[in-house]
Write a structure and sequence with these properties.
The complex is a heterodimer. By secondary structure, chain A is mainly beta. Chain A has one domain: 7 Propeller (Methylamine Dehydrogenase, Chain H). Helix content of chain A is 7%, strand content 38%. Chain A has 6 helices and 30 strands. In chain A, a hairpin with a 5-residue loop joins strand 26 and strand 27. The longest helix of chain A has 8 residues. The radius of gyration of chain B is 18 Å and the shape is elongated. Chain B contains 9 helices and no strands. Chain B has one domain. Chain B is mainly α. Classes of the chains: A mainly beta, B mainly alpha.
Chain lengths: 466, 223
């Protein structure tokens, strides 16, 4: 508890854009074969610093096999609403779940160059208190810290549906399940919300047996992965509408609502359309009558490829699917970044008109059967994946790993973790910085990035832009 | 009667002051009014939100003061009642000093239900309790002023005073909170929200203890 609100809390997205820029990034280090512990790497992002563009500190966990993936802050700008009653939290702790072990670490970043494990929640406690397993996305909100999970109970996580649970934002005690009425929701992945408008949106990947040992081609071709998103009355904890994009839209993953809470729309990325291998982005919005609507507003075509250049999984198709695995929206709600992990491309769309996105920038890096090198000369394993945008919208960072077993299926023989940065042009456009290239320590891959002081997939704002 | 007139004025001053104190505290809701105004893009929405917050606060004040106004009819127990009320307020303050956590159920109230939220927030933080010793002091000063009357008349009079205290306090709170909301909304912008927000939790809890102790002191030595 502090005497003043944390200086990194901002009433509006506009104010967050004007705030001082990031000095550090925190990046997940994943040991794909669980031979080493996973960890958090601290990357120096201050161009004036000697350590700029390098890993200046790392904290490895005391366990192996956690499989770090996504993580998040204990507190964000959402604290600035009197409704939450915790305006004096510090943005200080990273909540880092292991999606394979179901263990959760709370990491103290008070000194970014000396991270410490503040608390560890063992898997048994997660299972016992929530009935869920495989914790994933973290958001701080009205009732504390919300954690989405990918698995239900039981050994393989299929005993009951996965969902969201809530943790106390001060003690980090697990409180229990979020849902009071989940409706048709039976799979889970990402979620986010609009706090003043009091709605939440959640998405679906697949159940643990569908991803833990790799993608299951039969399930994908028979459209058994998630293809719906769910709209919730956030504070009543009730599913008010399930929207099915269509069963061919397999793996509806990242949910990115507009940051300005006055707006009632957002985006969702779909990994692959099984009818034509396209990647797709849907825009969702609240219609005049109050019900939720959606429309496919971006499609990305697959690239034909000689089967002999393709991994066994894709040889039958003779094409490289884009595989839209992550999307991120700048704080001014202007640019949507779309990672095409299969093609090896990062796209930038102007979504000022959310119903008519325009492609304004594109960078090629890595990619199946292409392997484009970084302009600085370094190799880029796999393709562009987890993407994070600086608060001011001028720099875009990304890493390359999707998920341990999937990396190997789509990019057999490749390994390594890389993080790169691209600059955003005055009127759009995206250019890789040839000098910013971080090669992760051997044996570790890189996944989600969190920026010191918040970023474009962390903070929820309670007040509209002026 | 000179002393009592001064005491009475001071007590009414305390009613107004506590209203201003509640009103300027962002935790009691004025930022929600700014938010409502900006969300709808018109200042009428802000005025409506301020009115909703005021109504919830007023109801919370009455919910606490009215039971005490009933009890003031027990005129023989007046001193005991005032000491008991003072102890209750001190206890609430001590509790809030020890337990500095905000009740989580408040976070489950939908942002559209501002009357309910304002009522619950005021109740949870003992905002009404803070007025009790002051209110009982006013009843006592009135009593001294008017001489002993029939218990029934007295109770009627005390209920009127309870409404007057709650209204005056809420009016002061609304004017103070509304003024800040308007300045932020029309002139200086939301960056001042985080700059003007101070953690008053401890000050608040200590205020309850001081007011409660003052009430006990007045009951014992006020005459």
């Amino acid at each position: 508890m502090t005497l003043r609100p944390d200086p990194t809390f901002h009433a509006t997205a506009q104010l967050a854009m004007q705030a001082p820029v990031e000095n550090y990034g925190f990046v997940v280090m994943l040991s794909p074969d669980a031979s080493q512990p996973d960890g958090i790497a601290v990357v120096d992002l201050n161009p004036k610093s000697d350590g700029y563009g390098t890993i200046v500190h790392q904290l490895l966990m005391p366990n192996t096999g956690d499989e770090f993936h996504h993580f998040g802050w204990n507190a964000c700008s959402s604290s600035l609403s009197p409704l939450t009653g915790h305006a004096f939290l510090e943005r200080r702790y990273l909540i880092v779940p292991g999606i394979r072990s179901s263990r959760i670490y709370v990491i103290d970043t008070k000194d970014p160059l000396d991270l410490k494990i503040h608390k560890t929640i063992e898997p048994e406690e997660v299972f016992a208190k929530t009935g869920y397993s495989r914790p994933h996305t973290i958001h701080c909100g009205p009732e504390g810290i919300y954690v989405s999970t990918l698995g239900g109970g039981g050994e393989d996580g299929t005993d009951g549906p996965p969902g969201i649970f809530i943790m106390d934002c001060e003690t980090f005690e697990i409180i229990g399940q979020y849902e009071m009425d989940r409706g048709k929701q039976d799979k889970h992945y990402d979620f986010w919300w609009n706090l003043p408008q009091d709605y939440m949106v959640s998405s679906e990947w697949g159940l643990p047996p569908q991803y833990e040992n790799g993608v299951v081609p039969e399930d994908l071709l028979s459209n058994k992965y998630g293809h719906s998103i769910h709209f919730w009355d956030l504070r009543r904890r009730k599913n008010i509408q399930t929207m099915d994009f269509g069963e061919n839209y397999q793996m509806a993953l990242e949910i990115r609502p507009a940051h300005d809470p006055k707006k009632s729309y957002g985006f969702c990325g779909v990994v692959v359309d099984t009818t034509n291998l396209q990647g797709a982005i849907f825009t969702w919005w609240r219609g005049e009558d109050g019900t939720w609507q959606s429309k496919k507003t971006i499609t990305i075509d697959p690239r034909p490829e000689d089967p002999e250049n393709l991994p066994p999984l894709l040889q039958g198709f003779g094409a490289v699917p884009p595989l839209v695995t992550d999307i991120d929206l700048s704080l001014d709600d202007k640019y949507l970044y779309v990672a095409c992990w299969g093609l090896g491309e990062m796209h930038q769309y102007d979504v000022s008109d959310p119903m008519n996105p325009k492609l304004t920038g594109k960078v090629e890096l890595g990619g199946i059967a292409r392997g484009t090198k970084h302009p600085g000369g370094g190799d880029f394993a796999f393709g562009p994946q987890m993407v994070e945008i600086s608060r001011d919208g001028k720099r875009v960072y990304w890493t390359n790993s999707l998920y341990s077993t999937w990396d190997t299926q789509f990019y057999p023989g490749q390994d390594g973790g890389q993080m790169v940065m691209a600059h955003v042009g005055e009127n759009g456009g995206l250019t890789l910085d040839r000098d910013f290239y971080i090669d992760f320590p051997k044996g570790h891959r890189a996944h989600q990035i969190r920026l010191e002081g918040g970023d474009c997939s962390t903070d929820s704002f309670c007040y509209p832009n002026v | 009667m000179e002393l009592d007139a001064n005491t009475l004025a001071a007590l009414w001053g305390a009613v107004i002051f506590s209203g201003v104190y509640h009103g300027v505290n962002p935790g009691m809701g004025w930022p929600l009014a700014v938010s409502a105004g900006l969300m709808e893009g018109r200042h009428r929405a802000m005025a409506k939100a301020i009115a909703a917050l005021a109504l919830g606060h007023l109801l919370a004040m009455l919910a606490i003061l009215l039971p005490f106004s009933m009890m003031t009819a027990l005129i023989r127990w007046e001193t005991e009642l005032r000491i008991g009320a003072g102890l209750l307020v001190v206890a609430a303050g001590v509790y809030l000093v020890i337990n500095r956590r905000h009740p989580r159920f408040l976070a489950r109230v939908a942002p559209s239900r501002l009357v309910l939220w304002s009522f619950l927030a005021a109740m949870a933080h003992g905002a009404g309790l803070m007025l009790v010793p002051i209110y009982l002091g006013i009843c006592d000063a009135d009593l001294a002023d008017a001489g002993h009357e029939a218990a029934r008349d007295l109770m009627g009079q005390n209920i009127t005073v309870a409404f007057a205290v709650a209204l005056a306090h809420t009016l002061a709170m609304t004017v103070a909170g509304g003024a800040i909301a308007a300045v932020i909304y029309f002139y200086v912008g939301l960056k001042f929200l985080s700059r003007t927000w101070f953690n008053l939790d401890l000050v608040w809890a200590l205020s309850l203890i001081i007011v409660g102790a003052f009430g006990i002191y007045m009951a014992l030595y006020g005459h």
